[in-house]
Write a structure and sequence with these properties.
CATH superfamily: Gcn5-related N-acetyltransferase (GNAT)
Helix content: 10-25%
CATH class: Alpha Beta
Distance between the termini: 33 Å
Strand order of the largest sheet: 6-7-5-4-3-2-1-8
CATH architecture: 3-Layer(aba) Sandwich
Largest sheet: 8 strands, mixed
Radius of gyration: 17 Å
Length: about 180
Amino acid sequence: MIIEPFAPYNASEFQVKFATSDWERRQAHALRRAVFCEEQGIFEDDDRDAIDDHAIPIVALSMMGVAADKLVGTVRIHQPEPGLWWGSRLAVHEDFRKIGALGTTLIRLAVSSANAMGCHTFLANVQVQNGLLFRRLHWDVIEEFEIYGKPHLRMKADLSYYPPCPTPEAGFVALPKKAA
């Protein structure tokens, strides 16, 4: 009898939700460090800052049935003043970037959960190469500028496209597109 090697596991869905456990928060920071420090070289050793002390981390988890298998994406949101929310540090693991639903769903939960918590304005500083994605998701460019030595767009979400999500701890499911 010949035993075939196991095929690599491909998640059939991803859960995007508020980080609710220590391992999710640790892995979110590790992914951010990998993307913003090692891959992009924006920060030298760590990308953490004072915002992390009060930001809400959102994570994308690959699911194996009902159990989380791996953290594959993250973003954080915070409210510096009542009604004004910011999203930042959007990162998707390089092996999962072709699954467009991940970044989109992270952005959708970020804005929709803030909308449920009284948001009247949601902003983000977006790297120029990601501007088209945000425009497709109903964001407008407010200004162009440089930060961390890279061109960025300050963008504002059109909240009418983001209905409030009152259950961000459960979040949304992101389904990868099936190959044709």
